[in-house]
Amino acid sequence: MSIEPWVFYAWACWIIPVIGALLTPLLAKLGERMRDFSAVIFSLLAMLMTLSLLPLLFGDVEWPLRSQVSWVLLPGAPILSEIRAGMLLDPLSIIMANVVSVISFLIMVYSLGYMRGDPGLTRYWFFMNFFIANMLLLVLADNLILMLIGWEGVGLCSYALIGYWYRDSKEGWLHYWVGEPPEAYPPSHCGMKAFIVTRFGDLFMIAGALVLAATAKTIGFPELLHADTIVPAEMRWLLPAALIMILGGAVGKSAQLPLMEWLPDAMAGPSSVSALIHAATMVKAGVYLVARLFPIALSWSASVPAATSFFYAVMWIGALTAFIAASQAVVSTELKKVLAYSTVSQIGYMMMALGAAGLSAEIITGYVASIFHLMNHAVFKAALFLAAGSIIHAAGSRFLRDMGGLRKHMPVTFYSTLLATLALIGLPPFGGFWSKDLVLSTTLSSGQYAIFILGLSTAILTAFYSIRMVGLAFYGGEKSKKVHEAPRIMWVPYLILAALSLIIGLVAPLLESGLEAALSRILPAYMHSAYEASSMELLVPLTSVTAIAVGAVPAYALYVRGMVDLGEIVEKHGYMRALRTLLIRRYYINTFYYRAIAYPSIKLGHAINKVFESRVIEGINNAISIGARRLSDIVRRAHTGLLNHYVIGLILGALILIILILAGGA
Q1: What is the DSSP string of 304-373?
Q2: Which residues neighbour 558 within 8 Å (Cβ) at sequence distance 6 or greater?
Q3: DSSP secondary structure, 195-245, as one string
Q4: Contact 121, 171 (CB under 8 A)
Q5: Tens digit of each residue's pLDDT (9 = 90 or more) over 273-300
Q6: Does residue 137 surpass a pLDDT of 90?
Q7: N or C, which terminus of the chain has less Cβ within 10 Å?
């Protein structure tokens, strides 16, 4: 029986890296080079499988394509006796799968140089390949349960890779700790923090999935599109409630308010991990989930008006997160933490676009804006994180104050960082300019003017902290004369990504129209919208470029040219010191979580251990132990060693059995 090629590619793209992960310990026995290069080859094969799916986007295909297998439950199951699960291919999943696989491969190549000589490389390669596999499974899953398997898989890998340097050595303070007192954390703490916070969001997601399974009797994405027509009218209010609960999982995984505090501290992991998990792939899972639910929520809103609350929630959470995270990046003292805040902020942009699209007449424009920005961000932010790894290695410190003057000694890293930074800012003609303007245009067309202002303010802050980062790292006085360029195997991947961010911008109009044509095919016909030119057409690019100038010019004067010492100005004004402290302390959101949740939970745990476990559980264990010992003493006394006693015991036992048999027969 022959199968379609796309079926093989869809299943193989995530199964291959699973095999690679499982073989890593065995390959390590054959030698370090065999282990290292094999790990990269498995990621290459996964990329080739997803690239083989791209021709489907240009063919006459009736979406979605689905390949399923049956999971048989116990006979007589109360709700379902069989669950069918499999791969779902449509333009959204194919595009996302290729973003994941291509960038993952480049990061794996970078890791050959960046992680060389590390004693834990077998563990590193295992979790990196296992992460790639779970991320691709998450993207291609055709139902919520299968998606949750990949979802939890990437969460587990994230925990292990954030806390990769779990020994928390004091020697690693300048390299892989995060923060400064009173908010300084070692890698093991950061890994556990990420695990707990994201699991909290996942609880809501699981609850939402269960509500849908109970009410709609399905968890398959294609079937959910019309679930509102089969749910009784009196129970339809549960549908938008389920969407909001599932949004909790997206908020946790994509580090949006109020669950954003784990991502800045996740920078304790290697820079390659930051690039893969916390810039290009895993944190985009929440955006992907919202994009996957988008047509479902829009379809339900026709019969359940309350479903539009989903779009309002997504839009406001994204807008507020974008602004707050950008303001925190303005004062951050660590290179990777600036990029982490930037990631949180830019994901907020994507969420904002999806939310506004659901409230706009130009639905497809906003939908394309979010996915286009996701693609752009994955490229330029992965380049920035990889370059940051080279910079931190060269400077010997994660702090921006220990850098400076690196431009002369690291020209490739400098130009790569500059290109990616300009894409992040959204300077034309880079790709970030086009997608960011589409996002802002969507907020205007939906009539969400407050959201537009928040988005524009975020653009100003983005330009400021981006130029500040480049100025502090590459300009100013040299802190060390021993700095040198990164090896080629490290700078080639991020130079390719940085150049790609410019190439995307140069072909952006064609790419944008292609995305619109492809993504519109997965939305029902009545959801399509025709874009009409208006007098407002030039407003967004003009205001966008103006916002860049407002943020970039003062940052250039302060941190590149060094015209004014901002530190002295801040120290002279009490309100500026207070504002700076507020931003450095992360609006005290992180402090609130520790004082209101973490510390009380730890104290409660100690109290439970002291009272319940020490007295009750150990008391029960001791009682069982004493009882067993006394019973053993009684039984032991029956073993006298005298043959007569044993014969009498056998006769009595036989008589008892005969009586029981006769009584049963009667």
Answers
A1: -GGGHHHHHHHHHHHHHHHHHHHHHHTT--BHHHHHHHHHHHHHHHHHHHHHHHTTSS-HHHHHHHHHHH
A2: 468, 471, 564, 566
A3: HHHHHHHHHHHHHHHHHHHHHHS--BHHHHTTGGGTS-GGGTTHHHHHHHH
A4: no
A5: 999 988 778 999 999 999 999 999 999 9
A6: yes
A7: N
